[in-house]
Amino acid sequence: MSYYKRHVFFCLNQRDDGGECCGTPNAEALFEHAKDKAKALDLHGGRGKNRINRAGCLNRCEHGPVCVVYPDATWYTYVDEEDIDEILTEHLQHGREVKRLKIA
User: Fold this and answer.
1) Cα 70 to Cα 74: distance, rounded to the nearest angstrom
2) Confidence of residue 61 (pLDDT cuts 50, 70, 90)
3) Phi/psi at 62 (nearest 5 deg)?
4) Concatenated DSSP letters for 20-87?
5) Domains of the chain, earliest start first
6) Contacts of 32 (CB under 8 A, 6+ apart)
7) Minimal CA–CA distance to 74: which of 103, 34, 31?
8) Of 49, 63, 70, 83, whose CB has the highest number of CB atoms within 10 Å?
9) pTM for this entry
10) Per-position b or e across 33-58, b if 16+ CB within 10 A of its CB
């Protein structure tokens, strides 16, 4: 068994050239919301729980902003706190993919 049940990586990359990227103006705030919400739901922590982490470029810029849930290898796009809340409650808490936010 791995240390974490699931590991969620949020791309927060900002391109120097101003090109398409996940580092939208509110990406950092949404990442912080994800961490806070996961802690409030008692989903974030050590062994057997989930981990919410920032990541550099995940090379899915055209879908940005994105996050990926491992070991499930499920990729999501999101735009607001409600999307983040749905990913956390449905996927992390209940083990169900959020089809409307999932990207191939």
Assistant:
1) 7
2) confident
3) -65, -15
4) S-S--TTHHHHHHHHHHHHHHTT-BSSTTSEEEEEES--S-GGG-SEEEEETTTEEEE--SHHHHHHI
5) 6-103 (3.40.30.10)
6) none
7) 103
8) 83
9) 0.91
10) bbbebbeeeebbeeeebbbbebbeeb
11-35 confidence digits (pLDDT tens): 998 777 766 677 777 889 999 999 9
**Burial degree of 61 (CB within 10 A; 0-12, 13-18, 19+):** middle
Are 102 and 74 in contact, with CB atoms under 8 Å apart? yes
